[in-house]
Amino acid sequence: MPDSCCHEPSCELGYESTVKPSSLKIGEEKTLHICACKPWNASEIQVNQGEQYSFAYDNVVNWVDGTIPSSPTTGWQGTSYQFLGKLVSPYRRSDKSDWYALVGSIGLKEDEVFFASDTGSVEMKKSGVVYFYANDKIGRYFNNKGTLRLTMTRVK
Q1: Lowest-pLDDT range of 3-7, 47-51, 67-71, 87-91
Q2: Which of 21, 52, 73, 147 is the most buried (most CB within 10 A)?
Q3: Between the CA atoms of 54, 155, 44 and 144, what dihedral angle is there, to the nearest 10 degrees?
Q4: Measured between alpha carbons, how far is 80 from 113 in angstroms, rounded to an integer?
Q5: In this structure, is residue 85 part of a structural domain?
Q6: Can you give the residue range of the structural domain that contains 143?
Q7: 4 within domain boundaries
Q8: What is the helix (H) or strand (E) element at residue 76, kind and residue range?
Q9: Is residue 143 within 8 Å of residue 3, measured between CB atoms?
Q10: What pLDDT, on a 0 to 100 scale, did the predictor assign at position 1?
Q11: What sign does the CA torsion over 120, 126, 130, 135 have?
């Protein structure tokens, strides 16, 4: 099993942030480095129920599930992979997005997850610290590759 999905120190599988989570004010944003091979990417952002956030991606590098080219917005690329994804959809980690698309979770219990789409905004349904991950099957993060820069902005 690899110890990293890229050459960024924050993608090392044992890496844990020691920064205390903080809240964003309306109009304030924070840029995060997301690693596809990590089951949990800590945002260090504390959200409150009812707040709204938008998401923007850039610097998406090699976002690949095993050998399947993918996108953080639409997941697996190509008609045959998208068809296969629908057939095996009960096995993906979250039903909020397609395979390998970017998902956010308020807390580590995954009882409140959302598709971190780069279109529109998301209202937070509960309070807590936000984490992100590529929507894959639990236990299958070892073959994930790719990173992206995610900007999370509080809009309400």
Answers
A1: 3-7
A2: 147
A3: 0
A4: 27
A5: yes
A6: 9-154
A7: no
A8: strand 75-76
A9: no
A10: 43
A11: negative
Is residue 148 pLDDT above 60, yes or no?
Answer: yes
* pLDDT at residue 2 in the model: 46
The count of domains in the chain is 1
The CATH number assigned to the domain holding 56 equals: 2.60.120.430
Whether residue 73 lies inside any domain: the answer is: yes
pLDDT tens-digit series, residues 51-90: 999 999 999 999 999 999 999 998 888 878 777 777 777 7
Q: What pTM does this model have?
A: 0.88
Q: Is there a domain that residue 1 lies in?
A: no
Q: What is the total residue count of the chain?
A: 156
What does the buried/exposed string (b/e) look like for 127-146 if buried means 16 or more CB atoms within 10 Å of the residue's CB? Answer: ebbbbbbbbbeeeebebbbb
Report CA-CA distances (Å) from 118 to 25, 57, 91, 141, 142.
Answer: 20, 7, 24, 23, 26
Give per-residue pLDDT as tens, 109-142.
888 999 998 888 999 999 999 999 999 998 899 8
Strand order in the sheet with 113-115: 41-47, 128-134, 102-106, 113-115
Question: Among residues 108, 99, 89, which one has the least CA distance to residue 39?
Answer: 108
Q: Which residues pair with 35 in a beta bridge?
A: 147
Determine contact, residues 9/15, Cβ cutoff 8 Å: yes
